[in-house]
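Hi, here's the filled form for the chain we discussed.

Project: internal
Contact: R.S.
Residues: 144
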Amino acid sequence: MPGYWNAPELTAEMIRDGRYPGDTLLCTQDLFSVDGDGDLYFVSRSDEIIKTRGEKVSPAHVENVLYSVAGIKEAAVVGVPDTLLGETIRAYVVCDNTISIAESDIIRTCRERLESFAVPQEVRFIDELPKTPSGKVRRKSLPR
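And the returned structure, exactly as it came back:
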C-alpha cells in the first residue's frame, strides 16, 4: 500500500479491527451488490461516486448504458463541479466510426434508461481515453 507509507492518518482510516479478536480488515470503501447466493459484484469505487441534485450516481452505472449505444467503443463518466447541482455529469465517449452518432442520440438513450439525475448533461467525443499501464481509465486525466 504505497499510498499509505508514512501516512498514519490515512492508514488508520483504511485498516480497521475486524469483528473477531485479532482480525484486521482493509476497508477499500468500494461499492458492491450482493446476489441471492451471497456473491459480491463490484459496482464502483466510493471515491468516484458523483453527487448531483442531492443524489449519488455511480459512473459505472451510466457507463453501462453508454456501452449499450451502437457506435460507442469506450466510455467514461465524471462529475464536474457545479455551484447549483453540486456536480454535473459529463460523459466522454470514443466512437468506433461504424455508425454516425450525435450527442443528442446518446442523451436520448440515457434519458430512456436512467433516472433523470443520472443523465449526462454533456457528452464529449474524444479519440481515446487516458489509461494506466494496466488498462484502467484515468478519470482524473480527463478534462474537467
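Let me know if anything looks off before we file it.
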